[in-house]
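Summary for the lay section of the report: proteins are chains of building blocks that fold into shapes. Here we show the chain for Carboxypeptidase and then a coded description of the shape we predicted for it.
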Amino acid sequence: MDRENSSFLLSFFILSLLVTEIHGNRQGEALNNLHKSKFRASSQIDHKSEFEVQELADDSILHSQKGLKEKDRIVRLPGQPLVSVSQYAGYVTVDNFAGRAFFYYFVEAKHSKETRPLLLWLNGGPGCSSFGYGAMQELGPFRVNSDGKTLYKNNYSWNNVANVLFLESPAGVGFSYSNSSSDYKTNGDKKTAADNYLFLVNWLERFPEYKNRDLYIAGESYAGHYVPQLAHTILHHNKKATKTIINLKGILIGNAVINDETDSTGMYDYLASHAIISDKAAYALNKACDISSDNITSECEAAVNEIQKDLDYIDLYNIYAPTCKNTDLTALPKKTGIVTDPCSENYVYAYLNRRDVQEALHANVTSLKYDWEPCSNVIEKWVDSSSTVLPFLHEFLKNSLRVWIFSGDVDGRVPITSTKYSVNKMKLPIKTVWHPWFAHGEVAGYVEVYEGNLTLATVRDAGHQVPSYQPARALSLIKYFLDGTPLPGPRRHA
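The coded shape description reads as follows.
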């Protein structure tokens, strides 16, 4: 076994021993569980084959959407403060035969909605809710109070600059469902991309005013797979039809899983460099743990145990953030700040499982036998997971799409070191060297721009879910991305 491949497998081996105890939210746990399954010797997940677009029968693509838009209009959510923007939510069927339908939430831009672009947001997992995380804890117009009953405004919502669409996918995530239970055993990267495409073309039929609008796709974590794979699928079908079916203009991915090898090695380098694991333990991993052997040495086991103890009591997804100490709801809402409460996942769970909330959202129309969960408990298997999406990023650059990759710099799970290692694999010439970028009068992060229109940016003091921890900086980032202008450096700031 060559040294590079051995080191790569070793990292996943060690990770599989550690992840069951790492503190963090359910989205992070889902990613850890995938990696445990993916690199187990008996794994049934296909991670070696290249991603291929699933071809679709022409008669199965579009379904009638007549009259459904107005039925999806949200009058007002329970406990919602007054706002003047339009909200919609409901289901789009992606497979009539199987009875597979995806739930969406859509909020139009606060101003100039007729000319603002359409932004599709996807969360990762796999198996986690873009509504429960993206909309309700990160970049949507509201966040849930600690009473689990009322909402408060998010002044840094991304609908300040775009019309924002949140999608729960694949089937079994959040309110999205299938009438065929076998669907929960066949989800994977390929099927998710195909279904996301079917959702999008049908949603555009329901909202025809957005058919020719500029579309950008964004997401975080395992959406580092979802976003490029959907973008690739869109380009494939546009080319096949010799016309623009969907007017895709670019992608934006954050703390994203994009290349297994570098994602893993970058994680341990980050932990050692941030004084979370010792240099001695990091060295011992490489020296004492031989993945090519079935025999785990006492030295290897000692290194693993030491690292486990180091990670036991922190949130790996924001290494400096407090963890949730009390999951109980409060009788009255606690005082809120701009940074998401570490217990907010519990507030969202309580709110979205209220019957009056589900009725207002036109959700759970089939009376599902399980609760809404931030990450799915009903998806039984993930059948394929590509080892890399880097070839797609090259494809997008060749097709003149805008590609931005951002990274919260205190995420220890898919840290900036992983992302830098992955981008370096692309061997792109540097156009603008590494430098600080500014927002609201201070350094918001650092940025490097590459030939071909790829930007790599950090967001200072942000964890895995960047808009939760640094909402103002995240809003500045998305504004410049959508405008197609460089992040402001020292001269522009001055």
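Put simply, here is one thing we learned. The longest strand covers residues 430-439.
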